[in-house]
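User: Hey, quick favor. My workstation is busy. Could you predict this chain's structure for me?
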Amino acid sequence: MPQQDGAPIGDKSWAEVATGGLLIEVWGFGEIAISRKSSPGTSVKVMIIRGKDKGETGVIKRVIRSQNRVIVEGKNLVKKHIKAGEGHEGGIFTVEAPLHASNVQVLDPVTGKPCKVGIRYLEDGIKVRVSRGQGASGSIIPRPEILKIRTTPRPTVAGPKDTPMDLVLERTYDAKTGKGMPDL
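Assistant: No problem, here it is.
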């Protein structure tokens, strides 16, 4: 059986290459070839604080929100044995295993040390993420560009099940007279 590294080939991950672009279940709990929209992007640098790669830094590659896990690029490498099947070749693959989100911490942009993330409001009312904890500078942690884009845009027109504005403001119940109360 051929042995392949976990490094992606071109623009595709190892799972997409091994299956010809199909999504396969490797870990037993879901699809490995997750869409790029679920990833926070390449600008989130983290340090692994527990596990075999403790103390190493890396960039978040994928987020598995349903499992509360992240995949850090080039870290927590394990060997996976994939049986050959229709349309893909089997072999032993080196892949990045997911880490629980509690085992990684975001790096402070000023000090470069791991820190916790807090939420603060600026004077003009804008909500920002700030570094907090031991070794933190208290500086603003910028949000990745991909998180600023909504996956489903907000509707600009009223839908078929939306109540029209003139009916929203209409008074349908009077507490003094009991008008509008249903007869039970």
